[in-house]
Amino acid sequence: MHTMPFTVLPFPSATPDIRQVVAGLLQPGGKMSFARFCHARRDVGIPLIFGYAQALAHHAETLFGEPAIMGLPAGTLRYHGSEQADFAPWHTDAWFFRGDGRGLTFWVTFDDAGETAPGVEFQVGDRTVSPRVPAGHALMFGPHVRHRTQTIHGDRISVEFRCVPASMRVAEWQNMLQARVDRTGDGCRVAISAQGRTQYLDPPEA
Ligand SMILES: O=C(O)CCC(=O)C(=O)O
Ligand SMILES: [Fe+2]
């Protein structure tokens, strides 16, 4: 028996409304960095960053045993169309993280993936495991886990949030446009910084 190298987590901020905005910005088969998307549509980028802060960041902090940095340019919004898709072959995400090899990917889907649209499948021993990930959920996996795009057709919009431990001394990560969750007594706030300058985000209107 192998333990599964991934975890499925709820991510309620991946809403149909936001999906529609992404579908309007990208062509089927297209992609865009999450950082660029946040510049283009701050109104929609901010709720997604807060969604990460509320639903996902603590998993990274627990795993790392310290605060996490989420790199906005290290994530990509992807629109897989039924006809046009960009299938990633077997790989690991280790090269994204550099440094000491610690890191974490949260792959978020806006569509039901794994059966009617391409999800992400994993190598588990000598088997391929293709988890079903409902719309509004995330797959969490580590930097050394082999995975690829599932080669089935169907519409799917997804985005990744990639994190490293805050103490990881890699200039590229330290200087990248990044989100960090500040845990305060009664909640959390989100700090966005780039090149050492920090700005705190106001939570989106409920
Ligand atoms: O979205 C995909 O099909 C590929 C995703 C992937 O490899 C990743 O998020 O690391
Ligand atoms: Fe990947």
From TrEMBL:
Keyword Iron assigned: yes
GO MF term (any one): metal ion binding
Keywords tagged on the record: Iron, Metal-binding, Oxidoreductase
Origin superkingdom: Bacteria
Family matches, as PROSITE patterns: FE2OG_OXY
Domain Fe2OG dioxygenase: 70-165
Family: Belongs to the iron/ascorbate-dependent oxidoreductase family.
Protein name (Swiss-Prot/TrEMBL): Fe2OG dioxygenase domain-containing protein
Organism: Thalassobaculum fulvum
